[in-house]
């Protein structure tokens, strides 16, 4: 028998054979039977007298939601002492005689000292009220709750233990939520402490140990321990270097320094860890999290059950590779080393990667074939996504050419001086380009994205975290291996990391202390989800590619059908494909209009009519549901406008600021369109498909940004750089520049150093 706190623990509980806990957070959604342990700091108010009703209501709502999903919920709660203290204090104040109150004076009454309240008396006064509160709250969700009080002695008697087990099973069978607490009114007095001012509180270790014991004996799938800290840290929370431990493994406690106990209660984190490890040994998964200030959606219990990265998850299965947090730190360290290399060395890495793409062509295509076969067998990818997933010899050759362009253009990217100013005599200021830091690029289906983005990150000296879709796992693995092989020639292998763990994208988007910029590459839904999930990290990209082509009255017949066909049909799934065709009203029922319609029919493009276009037709195509639609397929909308000005207004109202085109021979009309359309890319007599980093001569792109700050349009090396200021002085102080100082500001612009001609 091992004794933690005052409750004896039998090494393996009699009522349960050794079970198997969940290995990963993502499996927690399968938890059927769950114990939620509420620490004193969670249940009590900040003044340590009375209950935190708002917090308690939220907890009850979450438990009820999970119970109504068919799960079996149990609560181990503290709070009776705090609730009782509140009631007894009121009673003492009210029991003062009116005469004494009047005699003492109002000011003295306010300062009247409250006598020290004995913990067991507080518990006796508070237990019934606490349970009544739980019952009232659960009733709102049509759920019945039942109270069970236990003492240490109940665990000494085998018959009592069996009775407790049977009672709990019967309550769960009847869909009742058991609420369990130590019977603090009759337990032996604990060691004095000052957890609640003037009150000796029953040690929180009792409830931690009680929760673990019940969880294992009841063969519970999950134990959620809520306290007033985010989880388990590698050093005391609040210290400068403290880092939250995402996953804690048995044996790791040697590397952890425990801090002080919580605001209330006695157990502290060390007791929680001991109880958690014991429960884990008994087959119950455990998460320790903050129940006072939930950081994600405000619903910490349901977030944990959904597998979100909340608190510290205890697991017996240790992954072979580093955690994503460790990968981000490795990428940052590797990126800083990469940025310190000479430009020629960074270019050499990219040239080497380009060579590997062609030299290892057969191995790459073989891995890609596996991905394609698995995707086709599972039938989970639409045809456009399958096309994006596919690699070919020609694609690899194009990739290699693009990478060599990046290498050639990267010679003078990092550390380039873009402004020089002489502030005063011997005080010179420079603004120079520097990497952004650590980039997180999340991409779907397209394995060719990996070497492109890697080359741009290398050229700009950024650390890189890559998260690819599982449909391209084999392709991504070999391409990442080749990228690290190229990086190894200058000892910066860790600068580019591929996330292979079961990290959810939403969890990655919350690593605001490790990641400086998120770049999503994929569907508009993916981009929107990432923009919504990102917490404190800027997201570069566009959620939609609603691109327009406007056909003016002065358009060339020869150019119109070629440009429209290429914009819509060359690659309809691309974000720079035509989605809405705007036609000047005067072109309706003309041979040019008929040629456009005939070409779209031959290309099997489904036409949707805009409201104005439909009004001109007796029998029109299906009217469009929304003029803000990105079809991503052989479909487009046709709408009619009265002028170039109306075309611009339509684009501003319904477009996504991506790419918009005018077809006309009238230079004045074209210039009006080019100057007034507020999109990232605006073209005259050219296909929308030119909106691409490779076609712009950038070598490749990390994506197309419709943002109005930092980078816009196809984002190449320049878009992955920011700047810093370097000031070189000689004993300069600001006071010398005051009204009566000895120095004057010059603010002279200085010539920039010559850029590398290559």
UniProtKB/TrEMBL annotation:
This is Delta-1-pyrroline-5-carboxylate synthase. Keywords: Amino-acid biosynthesis, ATP-binding, Kinase, Mitochondrion, Multifunctional enzyme, NADP, Nucleotide-binding, Oxidoreductase, Proline biosynthesis, Transferase. Can form homodimers/multimers. Its EC number is 1.2.1.41, 2.7.2.11. Residues 32-290 form the Aspartate/glutamate/uridylate kinase domain. It catalyses: L-glutamate 5-semialdehyde + phosphate + NADP(+) = L-glutamyl 5-phosphate + NADPH + H(+); L-glutamate + ATP = L-glutamyl 5-phosphate + ADP. Bifunctional enzyme that converts glutamate to glutamate 5-semialdehyde, an intermediate in the biosynthesis of proline, ornithine and arginine. InterPro entries: AceGlu_kinase-like_sf, Ald_DH/histidinol_DH, Ald_DH_C, Ald_DH_N, Aldehyde_DH_dom, Asp/Glu/Uridylate_kinase, G-glutamylP_reductase_CS, G5K_ProBA. The keyword Cytoplasm does not apply. It comes from the Eukaryota. PROSITE patterns: GLUTAMATE_5_KINASE, PROA. SUPFAM superfamilies: ALDH-like, Carbamate kinase-like. GO terms for biological process: L-proline biosynthetic process. In the N-terminal section; belongs to the glutamate 5-kinase family. In the C-terminal section; belongs to the gamma-glutamyl phosphate reductase family. Pathway: Amino-acid biosynthesis; L-proline biosynthesis; L-glutamate 5-semialdehyde from L-glutamate: step 2/2; Amino-acid biosynthesis; L-proline biosynthesis; L-glutamate 5-semialdehyde from L-glutamate: step 1/2. One of its GO terms (cellular component) is mitochondrial matrix. NCBIfam families: P5CS, PRK00197.1, proA, proB. The keyword Oxidoreductase applies. Residues 323-588 form the Aldehyde dehydrogenase domain. GO terms for molecular function: ATP binding; glutamate 5-kinase activity; glutamate-5-semialdehyde dehydrogenase activity. It comes from Pomatorhinus ruficollis. It is found in: Mitochondrion matrix. Pfam families: AA_kinase (PF00696), Aldedh (PF00171).
């Amino acid at each position: 028998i091992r004794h933690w706190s005052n409750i004896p623990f039998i090494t393996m509980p009699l009522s349960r054979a050794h079970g198997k806990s969940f290995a990963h957070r993502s499996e927690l959604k399968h938890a059927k039977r769950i114990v939620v342990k509420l620490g004193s700091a969670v249940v009590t108010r900040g003044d340590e007298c009375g209950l935190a009703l708002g917090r308690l209501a939220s907890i009850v709502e979450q438990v009820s939601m999970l119970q109504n999903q068919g799960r079996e919920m149990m609560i181990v709660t503290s709070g009776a002492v705090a609730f009782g203290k509140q009631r007894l204090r009121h009673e003492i104040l009210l029991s003062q005689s009116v005469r004494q109150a009047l005699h003492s004076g109002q000011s003295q009454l306010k300062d009247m000292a409250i006598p020290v309240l004995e913990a067991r008396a507080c518990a006796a006064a508070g237990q019934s009220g606490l349970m009544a509160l739980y019952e009232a709250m659960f009733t709102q969700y049509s759920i019945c709750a039942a109270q069970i009080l236990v003492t240490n002695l109940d665990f000494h008697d085998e018959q009592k233990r069996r009775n407790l087990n049977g009672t709990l099973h019967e309550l769960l069978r009847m869909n009742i939520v058991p609420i369990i607490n130590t019977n603090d009114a009759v337990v032996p007095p604990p060691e004095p402490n000052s957890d609640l001012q003037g009150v000796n509180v029953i040690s929180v270790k009792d409830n931690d140990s009680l929760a673990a014991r019940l969880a294992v004996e009841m063969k519970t799938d999950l134990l959620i321990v809520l306290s007033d800290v985010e989880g388990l840290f590698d050093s005391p929370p609040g210290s400068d270097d403290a880092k939250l431990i995402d996953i804690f493994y048995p044996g790791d406690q040697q590397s952890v320094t425990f801090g002080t106990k919580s605001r209330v209660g006695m157990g502290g984190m060390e007791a929680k860890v001991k109880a958690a490890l014991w429960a884990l040994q008994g087959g119950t998964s455990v998460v320790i999290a903050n129940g006072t200030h939930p950081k994600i959606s405000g619903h910490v219990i349901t977030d944990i059950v959904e597998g979100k990265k909340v608190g510290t998850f205890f697991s017996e299965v240790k992954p072979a590779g580093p955690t994503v947090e460790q990968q981000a730190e490795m990428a940052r360290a590797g990126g800083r080393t990469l940025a310190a290399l000479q430009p020629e060395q960074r270019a050499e890495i990219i040239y080497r990667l380009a060579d590997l793409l062609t030299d290892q062509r057969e191995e790459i295509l073989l891995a890609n074939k596996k991905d394609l076969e698995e995707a086709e067998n599972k039938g989970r990818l639409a045809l456009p996504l399958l096309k994006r997933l596919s690699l070919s010899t020609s694609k690899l050759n194009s990739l290699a050419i693009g990478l060599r362009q990046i290498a050639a253009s990267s010679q003078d990217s990092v550390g380039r001086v873009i402004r020089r100013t002489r502030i005063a005599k011997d005080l010179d200021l420079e603004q120079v380009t520097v990497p952004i830091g650590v980039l997180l690029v999340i991409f779907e289906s397209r394995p060719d994205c990996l070497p492109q983005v890697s080359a741009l990150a290398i050229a700009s000296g950024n650390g890189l975290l890559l998260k690819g879709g599982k449909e391209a796992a084999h392709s991504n693995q070999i391409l990442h291996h080749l990228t690290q092989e190229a990086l190894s020639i200058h000892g910066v292998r860790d600068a580019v990391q591929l996330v292979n763990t079961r990290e959810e994208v939403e969890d990655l988007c919350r690593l605001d202390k490790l990641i400086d910029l998120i770049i999503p590459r994929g569907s508009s839904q993916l981009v929107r989800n990432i923009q919504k999930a990102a917490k404190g990290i800027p997201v570069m990209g566009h959620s939609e590619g609603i691109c327009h082509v406007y056909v003016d009255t002065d358009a060339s017949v020869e150019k119109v059908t070629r440009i429209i066909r290429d914009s819509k049909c060359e690659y309809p799934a691309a974000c720079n494909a035509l989605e809405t065709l705007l036609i000047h009203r005067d072109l309706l029922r003309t041979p040019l209009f008929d040629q456009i319609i005939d070409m779209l029919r031959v290309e099997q493009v489904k036409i949707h009519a805009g409201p104005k276009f439909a009004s001109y037709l007796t029998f029109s195509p299906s009217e469009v549901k929304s003029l803000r639609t990105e079809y991503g397929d052989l479909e487009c909308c046709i709408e009619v406008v009265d002028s170039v000005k109306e075309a611009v207004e339509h684009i501003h109202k319904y477009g996504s600021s991506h790419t918009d085109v005018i077809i006309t021979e009238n230079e004045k009309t074209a210039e009006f369109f080019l100057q007034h359309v507020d999109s990232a890319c605006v073209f005259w007599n050219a296909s929308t498909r030119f909106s691409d980093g490779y076609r712009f001569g950038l070598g490749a792109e990390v994506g197309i940004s419709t943002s109005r700050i930092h980078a816009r349009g196809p984002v190449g090396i320049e878009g992955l750089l920011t700047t810093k200021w370097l000031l070189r002085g000689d004993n300069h102080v600001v006071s010398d520049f005051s009204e009566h100082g000895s120095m004057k500001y010059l603010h002279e612009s200085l010539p920039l150093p010559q850029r590398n001609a290559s």
